[in-house]
Design goal:
With 294 residues, the protein is mainly alpha-helical. The protein is built from four helices and three strands, in the order ααββααβ. It is rod-shaped, with a radius of gyration of 79 Å.
Amino acid sequence: MLVTMREAPGRVPAAVLAVLVHAVFFALLVYSLDWKTHAPEPVMVELWQPPPPVVSSQARPRPTPHVEKISKPEPVQPDPDIAIAEKKRKLAEQAAREAELVAQQAAKKAAQKLAEQKQAELVQQQQAEQKAIAQKQMELAKLAEHQAKLDAQKQLAQKQAALRQMIAQQTQSELKNESARALTGQKQAAIASKQAAEMSKMQDEYVAKIRAKIRGKTILPDSLQGNPQARFAVSVLPTGEVLQVKLLHGSGQSAYDDAVERAILKASPLPMPPDASLMSQFRDLDLNFSRNEK
């Protein structure tokens, strides 16, 4: 990462001003040391003589005290050059203080301006960082939304694939079941057909047995003529016993009809098939008889 160091604005003028102020201080310091090397001022002192001892006035007259006058030294008049130099020094010091104050104020303003600029830069930097963060968050949100869409599409595709696979499995299972049912139906139809054939055969077989038993019990009179035929309805119990005999269509010869009816009653119980499912077929029999029937 390339980092660019930016120079703070106002730092150069402040540094130049500080150098100038220090140069002025240094010059004033040298100048004041030079002016402090003048000679000391003279000191004035007044000297007084002690008073004479007191003598009695009666003994001798009081002498007039002799006062010795001490001449005062003449005051030393200050050197006008020194006064001017002192005044210049004070003015220079005041100017230096004022310059220092101005420099301090300028430095303070420069520092305040620099602080304000730094604060403004910091605010701008924070705003830029916040903007970058917001932009980054927006990009992350878009990326998350896009990823969520991709995940949803992926899940939907997986669900659709699973659904297609389930439908295919169900279809295959249904085909197998249909095939199995068809095969079972065919087998059942074959079994039913076989059973029906067996039942029909058994029914024909027992009908023949019943007719044979009735014919065996029939005693025909000698007066019969031709080949008479008669039709009877016979009601039979499950045990084979004849419950009722009814002539449906007579042969025209009552002797034959009566002989057949008696033979039906004598043949009771009639032979019944062992399969109970055929009993309904033998409950009401419709039997035809003829003389020449074998």
